[in-house]
Specification:
Strand content: 25-35%
Order of helices and strands: EEEHHEEEHHHEEEH
Number of strands: 9
Largest sheet: 6 strands, mixed
Structural class: alpha+beta
Shape: flat
Helix content: 25-40%
Radius of gyration: 21 Å
Length: 264
């Protein structure tokens, strides 16, 4: 088995922030402006022609400004993406790219030198790490921050994940389920999610869901990964969370009218 490159830090080299904000901001008031830190870096595993490469491509949006709201949001973003705190987004992105590509060369070059005669193993060493982000307005003018992660580190297939963070516009606090629902919401919410899963899969029972490879090793649950929309909440399950990789993402959407008294 080929050893994996496990990333603890987070990095990007060639970082450029956009010269200006995107118009007047994502809200009509223009009180919150968005900037973007970009980074791309490509390195070869060894200094040889046609050697495998590691490609890092990061596009990380963040909140412009030094006020407490912007600091809270940006700190939460860098911690979620890079496990880093108390750094600017620029510093965190720059650190990640440098660290990731350095660890790739350090850890994978010795293995590649042993395998390079076998052309079938060449693809094992073609690494990539891509992050794209977006920010939009959600319920009550909250900020919905969406992260699309695409990563390949020599396994059987790439890893694709969509991660969502919802922020209170006034405080910059990240909103969790406990902030949105009344005490004791878990079981009723799970029942609604199970009903929606049966609806979208056209399954009438848990056994039928099992036949379609859903919930084989876990019970339904409400993830903290959700989009707080104007009229509904969309819960996002990434591959392996409630279904195998082949199913891709599963999205379950519940309207606020259906959630009813469960909401605060």
């Amino acid at each position: 088995m080929m050893k994996k490159l496990y990333i603890i830090g987070i990095v990007t080299i060639i970082l450029t922030a956009c010269g200006g904000s995107t118009g007047g901001g994502i809200f009509s008031s223009g009180s919150i402006d968005i900037k973007e830190a970009k980074a791309t870096k490509t390195v070869s595993i060894v200094n040889e022609d046609n050697a495998p490469q590691c490609q890092v491509n990061l596009q990380v949006k963040y909140m412009k400004g030094d006020d407490e709201v912007a600091k809270n949001i940006n700190n939460a973003i860098t911690e979620r993406l890079f496990k880093m705190t108390n750094l600017t987004v620029q510093q965190a992105v720059d650190s990640f790219a440098s660290y990731y590509t350095h660890e790739y060369q350090k850890n994978m070059a010795p293995l590649y030198r042993e395998d390079r005669a076998d052309q079938k193993k060449h693809a094992w060493y073609e690494y990539r790490y891509t992050i794209e982000t977006d920010a939009k307005r959600g319920k009550d003018n909250c900020i919905v921050y969406i992260i699309d992660l695409d990563m390949f580190e020599g396994g059987a297939h790439p890893i694709h994940q969509q991660l969502v963070m919802n922020f209170d516009k006034k405080t910059g606090k990240q909103l969790q389920l406990d902030d949105l629902f009344v005490q004791g919401y878990q079981y009723p919410l799970n029942d609604l999610l199970m009903e929606e899963l049966r609806n979208i899969t056209k399954c009438k029972s848990l056994d039928e869901l099992h036949e379609q490879d859903y919930l084989l090793t876990m019970d339904i649950y409400a993830p903290q990964n959700f989009i707080l929309g104007d009229d509904e909440i969309t819960f996002i399950y990434n591959p392996y969370e409630i279904a195998p990789y082949s199913k891709g993402n599963t999205e379950l959407t519940l309207s606020y009218s259906k959630l009813g008294k469960l909401m605060r």
